[in-house]
Amino acid sequence: MKHSVQFSDAVHILAYIAIFRESNQLSSTDIATSIQTNPSNVRKIMCQLRDADLIKTTNGMPKPCLVKDPHDISFFDIYQSLDHAQLFQIDTNTEPKCVVGGNIQDVLSDEYFLLQQVVEEKMKQISLGSVLQKISQAELAKNPMNKKFVAAFL
Questions:
Q1: Helix, coil or strand: residue 86
Q2: H or E element: which one contains 58?
Q3: Rounded distance, CA 31 to CA 8, Å?
Q4: Which of 53, 71, 121, 153 is the most core-located residue (most Cβ within 10 A)?
């Protein structure tokens, strides 16, 4: 089973850009180090975030910035910016002659549709700003010396 972490990485990238906005640590390599992925993956996601008007980038300059206030960027906005499939995927490789395998796809399709709607509504209620606030609180509890990076989000 393949599990995508693209949404998580997109939130990570936006939080990183917000927190390190005043630093010189905003290259795709720096961000990739934080995520523990490769810089090309970061650039791909950043292109999607830029196309969705969530960040602004300039070719050749490692200085991305958020276009909106973090409290005005919802999880739904981030989710919509990505090349994504539905949150819940149905396994289409089931045995059609089996009682379960022959019926589960249609049954799950209806249930997953309802779940997708509920999750998307909840995503609209969660902002990047609230995530930044929680990251800031967690960081201060661990490393009070890093207050300069996170103070703006407390």
A1: coil
A2: strand 55-58
A3: 13
A4: 153
